[in-house]
Predict the 3D structure of the following.
Amino acid sequence: MTIYVPPLNFSLVEDGIYRSGHPVPINFPFLKTLNLKTIIYLGDKEDNNDYYNFIKDQGIEFHYIKMESSSEPFIMNDPKAILEALEIIVNIKNYPILIHSNKGKHRIGVLVGIMRKLLQGWSITGIFDEYDKFAGGKGESDIEFIEMFELQEKLIVDKQNLPGFVRLDI
């Protein structure tokens, strides 16, 4: 009998987009059921051979976007990393997609928050409420980053392959 265990902080973001903490081997049977086409890892570690072998065996396109934890002193969120992830997310050819960080709290919370703000026109209150559900009330600098974030360069999109959840003209 197969046991299906989702990764830490696993949740549906939008149809075809999932978020979580870093998957471990016990999560692999569950991840197989999602038929993932793409995984984006926003993180600072490159040392999980079991995970990388699983991704390769499943034929999943993997994007490692280096992003330091903003919970460390003097480390800020990286706008270029957010832009790189958003450009993958706005192409439905990459779906189903899993976006994850180490614990699925802060870095993914920032990415999802900015996605909600820029692509869906969510209110700041709604964005912060969703962020807090995963981050547990910590992350004042992340919340400020989301609120102040503006694209410094144009988001590269293929309008033919834009997901249905995108509500704003980007």
Residues 11-148 form a domain with the Protein-Tyrosine Phosphatase; Chain A fold (CATH 3.90.190.10). The first helix runs from residue 28 to 33. The chain is about 35% helix and 15% strand.
